[in-house]
Amino acid sequence: MATFQEFLHVAQVSLSDKTSGHRMREILAVMRKYKVTQGLTPQKAVEVLEALGPTYVKIGQLASSRSDLLPKEYCDVFEQLQDDAAPLPYETVLSCMDTAYGHSWQEIFLAIDPEPLGAASIAQVHRAVLLDGTPVAVKVRRPGIVQQMAEDIALMKRALVTAEFVASSHEAIWMNLQNFVDVLEKTTENETDFAIELGNLLRFHEECRQWRGITCPIAYPEASNDAVLVMEYVQGTEISDVEQLAAQGYDIGQLADRLIQNYISQVLDVGFFHADPHPGNIIVRGDEIVWIDLGMTGSLTASERQQVGRMMRAVVSDNAYDLMQAVLSISKRHGELDHGALLSQLAALLGKYGSADLQDINIGAVLGEMIEIMRGQSLIMLPAVTMLVRGVVTIEGLMESIAPTTNVLEVVSQHVLKQSLDPEHLKMRALDLVGAAAESTEALAKLPYQVSDTLEMLERGELRVKGDVSISEDALATVYASLGRASLALISMGLFIGSSILCTTSMEPRLLEVPILGVLGYLGAFVLGVYVIFVTLKSRHRMKNNLKAD
Prior knowledge:
alpha+beta, four-stranded antiparallel sheet
């Protein structure tokens, strides 16, 4: 039964839901049109998401990497979702810009190309020229999109808490869905607020200074705001257009190696990475690889980055225990966890790939199986790690199409080895070891006091110990049999001692000058003693021959 706290949670979400009935009617109309209640095939689900609008297209794109929530056939089809939309009229674009700036766009731009470079569900991009003659790309947010996506997410939250209230027994399912909606809300907020993407561009461009041949568009903060983003206009060839790149004289293998090395460095060295590395977001221009569209990025804290590196090292070195510790560090638990079973399952996973060469192992497959194991153990990956998994799977698919001989796991292995020999990394490891040693010494010094306190609490009756020990049926049978024989032996001994005492008395009736009751006692003691000896020898024989206990 739902608790009063859960009831209040439903009420709170319902009151904060400001969505209009009009949007709800639109959603129900789409559901009726596609006869959703009669079942959904993967392809039909794609059509429904596209008909529902940009929020649901974004749901499909995010869900394509969530095999912990959906069957694989749905994830595969959702990967085909394209974020395309009918272009806005040119006049509408100009009106949006004027509204965003609070003055005419002509105070910033010399000209804007009426034909869009691209039109997506959230924004539209046009080529433009600044007043000083600099060619730029202008990204303009669609009118009303922020409110529409916020309404859709509010409806999802309301439906989710209502469903959880009605059927609160499926806690694991609700936790997974809540986590997914939280990630969706954060992603849509980031993608609809261009000030965030502006910050991403500025930070990424600064990080690119350390990488040879890697860059991103230059941002123009003075001409940008939360609804309009102005950046360098990038012309080049998509990384996936292998034929065109080869015709231009590029070595595809070298480009692929530089790209994957950079992506691993983004994750493990910097902790700030492009979370949507599909081919359309990677352009080759001159001798540079240009990362574009940084609306979706991921950030890992130093601790998370360390654990991700530990996880990758564990996979490469076949260390199940380290893998388990890393997995626990980058996930949230929402139910009971069996550490022994988790370790065993991860060891089996590593054993499955242990005999294969690194170049034959698909890291996406490994991560997919790892997520399945985590789901069975009530573990959910942290949102940033979920984005990382999606990015790694995407870029591995790109590598397979442009440079099949380049293996992501092998590159990760080399990078991890190089990182482990880096003086800064060794310094950090040494500090960790010193810290661990200090904590262990402190704990050891406290141990006598803790033992003393525990014994005092036990003596005063303030300490209770509760345990749950599982014993096999054979072991229980052996215990019961042993206790039974011991009881019979004690009875036999009691009869013998009692009979001996009776024999010293003048109790009547007597047989051969001995009380009859004493004789019967000796006889019973003898029979029980023989029986106990016989059963004990029989059990010893069965144990030596690996038979079950009586």
